[in-house]
Design brief:
The chain has about 290 residues and is of the alpha/beta class. The chain has 2 domains: about 30-125 and about 235-285, D-Maltodextrin-Binding Protein, domain 2; about 130-230, Periplasmic binding protein-like II (D-Maltodextrin-Binding Protein, domain 2). About 40% of the residues lie in helices and about 20% in strands. It contains 12 helices and 15 strands. The strands form 4 sheets. Strands 1, 4, 5, 6, 7 and 15 form a 6-stranded mixed β-sheet that branches. A 5-stranded mixed β-sheet has the order 10-9-11-8-12, with helices on both faces. It is globular, with a radius of gyration of 24 Å. Keywords: Lipoprotein, Palmitate, Signal. Pfam families: SBP_bac_3. One of its GO terms (biological process) is ectoine transmembrane transport.
Length: about 290
């Protein structure tokens, strides 16, 4: 009788243990999309870079990339966005370290970055811009002008694509001054620590508009850089951890609806973009071949 009871207890214990194991295994198999949909909120990483993603003076997270993501996430049943401000160069490491669930920073799609994260399809496309001291005393109108004058110093945000563009055309790394964000680049220009600052056109315009400082100016006849024979035009997108295919797929499906309805352009226009900055038919696959 005792042996029979002992067998029952052992059997029940084994079933309980197996049940716990199955529950724990199911929990670990939950994808990020399933988690944020269940919880109703998502944690997003962003850099303080207007007009893509930035915090307003009252602490509200906004920007082109943020508002596009906000609309898409709400339509996926995820109402709340928890923004985590970090330096641009820390976005991908932070995503991989699970500090946030996705990146909404208007990050350019590149083949190298696509090895580390899974991008959604692009939300916008954009060209480059530079600003100099008012009057452009050194006559800088292209990246090649920086190459041809080794005394010129240029400021770019750490982790931004402009570093790659500049070095690709022959600018020496010793000429490049790395700053944590775009407002810091403008500060360096105003203070005379650098001669030129480089960033995307909309970012540059946003920084200059916010500063409203007549000691600096945008170079309106700037010649767009040509890298390896190709005129540079960047495409920005939201990024997810590698393997988050379900999240990327549903995000892309809603993004396509925004493009077809015209809502994407309406959101972009709120942040100084125009029809010229629409991504067209470009996809992450076509941009990372």
């Amino acid at each position: 009788m005792k042996k029979w009871l002992l067998s029952i207890v052992v059997a029940i214990s084994l079933v309980s243990l197996l049940g716990c194991g199955s529950s724990e295994e199911a929990a670990t198999q939950e994808t990020t999309f399933e988690k944020v949909k269940r919880e109703g909120f998502v944690t997003v990483g962003f850099a303080n870079e207007a007009p893509y993603a930035y915090a307003t003076p009252d602490g509200k997270l906004t920007g082109e990339a943020v508002e596009i993501a906000r609309v898409i996430l709400q339509r996926l049943g995820i109402e709340e966005m928890n923004g985590v401000l970090t330096e641009f160069g820390s976005l991908i490491p932070g995503l991989k370290a699970n500090r946030f669930d996705m990146i909404t920073a208007g990050m350019y799609i590149t083949a190298d970055r696509a090895k580390e994260v899974d991008f959604a399809n692009p939300e916008y496309s954009i060209g480059e811009g530079i600003a100099v001291v008012a009057g452009n005393p050194i006559n800088i109108k292209s990246y090649e002008d920086i190459v041809n004058n080794s005394d010129v110093k240029v400021a770019v945000m750490g982790g931004a694509i402009q570093f790659n563009y500049l070095t690709s055309v022959g600018v020496k790394e010793s000429q490049i001054h790395i700053v944590p964000d775009n407002p810091s680049a403008l500060d360096a220009l105003i203070a005379g620590r650098v001669d030129v600052i480089a960033m995307t056109g909309p970012s540059l315009q946003a920084v200059l508009d916010a500063a409203n400082n007549d000691r600096v100016e945008r170079v309106m006849d700037f010649v767009q850089p040509v890298i390896d024979g190709v005129n540079v035009r960047g495409y920005g997108a939201t990024a997810f951890r590698k393997g988050e295919t379900d999240f990327v797929d549903v995000f892309n499906a809603e993004l396509e609806k925004l493009k077809e309805s015209g809502e994407l352009l309406e959101i972009l226009e709120q942040f100084g973009f125009t029809e010229q900055e629409l991504p067209g038919d470009a996809t992450v696959d076509s941009l990372t071949k």
